[in-house]
Design goal:
- With 576 residues, the chain is α+β, with helices and mostly antiparallel strands.
- It contains seven helices and 29 strands.
- It is 20% helix and 27% strand.
- The strands form seven sheets. It has a six-stranded mixed beta sheet with strand order 1-2-28-27-26-25, with no helix packed on it. Strands 5-4-3-29 form a four-stranded antiparallel beta sheet, with no helix packed on it.
- Strand 17 and strand 18 form a beta hairpin.
- It starts with a helix and ends in an 18-residue tail after the last strand.
- 37% of the residues are buried.
């Protein structure tokens, strides 16, 4: 019984760590280590989920106490100890020789800032202006919060006085309207609307247990704040005519398990989630079964499906007995072809270049996470980020000249979204161990992590996930990093987690995996992750899968190629 509990906690912790939920991951690994203090794998993952370099180093040292021959722990520890960002400051000396000064590690220069004078960012180290920017943002938030509280108190006082003055004159019994009430409109669909929408909601092709949140967008395109009075409106009857705004103009491919405890497999369905079909893959002619059995010699999991631009192939991560590699197979199923030979514990996030031949992915094959490219016909991989930073989640620009990634290169342990120039060749690191890409652009700078960027088909926007508001929310911004907007409406900062955003080919829908509940603002989480659709305005949320299965990631097929935007004139410009 105890071993079963350890296995379950390890599975939950690893899944949380892979989705960058480090706090949750560490909690599961601590539970494992309380029962089994010498669990080498738990300590390795504890190092992966560590919140600071010192915690990571302690966990790695514990691994080596248990197993001095653990090569991955040795490599990771060497990288930490050799990283100039973590090196202790040099001892001051009255006399410094030229040879010793040339070998001393460089330290960021501390600049005293005159708060009444504009910041000269060109002459300020990147680490310092990024830190100051974050501190300034926090100060502004505190001031705005104080003003908001003062206004709320003043408004409450006026309301109280008004009610006191009218209490004697008003003999009518007062009824209180609840903040949110949900009625079952029919047996298959529920709409929660702030106000009736002006256009009919995209229909589904078959009656299914589907939940839709409909909100009226503001003039600026931002999701409105929730009003205290809500009304329930029945769903309008519409004709299912496929078009650019109908998700059924496309189909989806996604990774899911058929039931709790079963391994993850590939499935195909209509754009609204209906008619799911298992995609059977084979290894050396032997089918990979949809469900596991006691006779299985090895555990196989499949994650992160990504369709080639022409839609004839699907690339994905296949994990066999704890080792993850990139594979490619026909989109309809059949024999798999192994692309990478990393022998790494994590090789994920595969993305197709618009040329239909090059794949980008991230892996911890050399001890930390780096971005790699490789031809899907299996060539030698190219490490694009040979540094000591954590680089993950590549997403190609529509013209294939840039990659949006998540990296902690300027804020250790805190992932931010960057756009980097794709040169197709290795660029040597600088003196701080960072790879100086030409045209590098930092798009986000906030508390928490910002990761999983997804470039829109027209190249104008980037969707991403961020934990800056405690839970993992879906955000969207202009591709230059301006105009960030939160699309995860109605969660009231409860633990609703969004994951793995993916754009429809026409750019009208964003698909995510989420554990949100059907009712806006409801406390609690779904026991499994389901696929949801939302618009780039966040004014509509629609659940498209149901049941006991756990849908993890997805991508889109384009049935009608004319829906893809013309990006022949795409030019990328960085706002900062």
């Amino acid at each position: 019984m105890e071993q079963n509990q350890i296995r379950e906690w390890m599975r939950e912790g690893i899944e949380a760590a892979r989705n960058n939920n480090k706090i949750i991951a560490r909690d599961f690994f601590r539970r494992v280590l309380e029962l089994d203090p010498n669990n080498e794998l738990a300590w390795m993952w504890m190092a992966q989920a560590a919140d600071s370099t010192s915690e990571r180093q302690q966990a790695l040292e514990r691994v080596l106490e248990i197993n001095p021959n653990n090569e991955r722990a040795l490599q990771a520890l060497r990288r930490i100890q050799s990283d100039t960002r973590y090196a202790p400051p040099a001892q001051e000396s009255s006399t410094v020789s030229p040879s010793s000064s040339s070998q001393a590690p460089r330290k960021p220069v501390e600049i005293e800032r005159d708060w009444l004078r504009p910041v000269d960012r060109q002459n300020m180290p990147r680490e310092l202006w990024a830190k100051n920017r974050r501190q300034n943002n926090n100060l502004l938030l505190y001031l705005l919060g104080a003003v908001a509280l003062a206004l709320i108190g003043f408004g409450g006082l006026l309301l109280f006085n008004y009610l006191e003055e009218n209490n004697g004159d008003n003999n009518t019994e007062t009824t209180t309207t609840p903040f949110l009430s949900v009625a079952d409109i029919d047996a298959t669909n529920t709409i929660i609307a702030l106000t009736p929408t002006s256009t009919p909601l995209p229909p589904t092709s078959t009656p299914r247990p589907t939940t839709i949140y409909a909100l009226t967008p503001t003039a600026t395109g931002l999701p409105p704040t929730l009003a205290p009075t809500l009304t329930n409106t029945p769903r309008p009857t519409v004709t299912n005519t496929p078009g650019p705004s109908d998700p059924n103009a496309f189909s989806i491919i996604y990774a899911a398990n058929s039931a709790p405890g079963e391994p993850s497999r590939l499935y195909r369905a209509n754009g609204d989630g209906s008619n799911p079909q298992f995609i059977e893959l084979t290894i050396d002619g032997v089918p990979i079964p949809e469900r596991s059995s006691a006779d299985d010699e090895r555990r196989i999991e499949i994650y992160d499906p990504a369709l080639s631009p022409a839609g004839e192939f699907v690339a994905f991560t296949m994990e066999i007995d704890g080792v993850q590699e990139i594979f490619v197979a026909p989109d309809t199923g059949g024999e798999v072809f192994q692309v990478t030979l990393t022998n790494a514990s994590e090789t994920r996030g595969v993305a197709w270049h618009p040329d239909g031949e090059t794949l980008a992915y991230y892996s911890n094959a050399d001890g930390d996470f780096d971005i790699y490219t490789v031809l899907y016909t299996r060539s030698d991989p190219i490490n694009l980020t040979q540094n000591n930073a954590d680089d993950r989640y590549p997403s190609w620009s529509p013209d294939g000249k840039y990659l949006a990634i998540a990296s902690d290169r300027y804020s250790t342990g805190n992932l931010e979204v960057f756009v980097i120039n794709y040169a197709g060749e290795v660029v040597p690191p600088d003196e701080f161990g960072r790879t100086p890409f030409s045209g590098e652009c930092q798009l986000t700078d906030a508390s928490g992590d910002s990761y999983s960027p997804a470039w829109s088909p027209d190249g104008k926007h980037i969707a991403f996930i961020t934990t800056r508001e405690q839970d993992a929310d879906l955000y969207i911004m202009n591709a230059d990093g301006s105009n960030e907007r939160n699309l995860s409406v109605g969660d009231n900062n409860v633990d609703w987690q969004e994951r793995n955003p993916s754009w429809s080919p026409d750019g009208n829908w964003i698909m995510v995996s989420s554990n949100r509940l059907p009712t806006v603002g409801e406390i609690g989480v779904n026991s499994t992750y389901k696929l949801w659709l939302t618009t780039p305005r966040g004014d509509l949320w629609q659940q498209i899968t149901s049941g006991e299965s756990n849908e993890i990631e997805g991508d889109w097929f384009a049935i009608l190629p004319e829906f893809r935007p013309d990006v022949s004139g795409f030019v990328y410009v960085c706002a900062s």
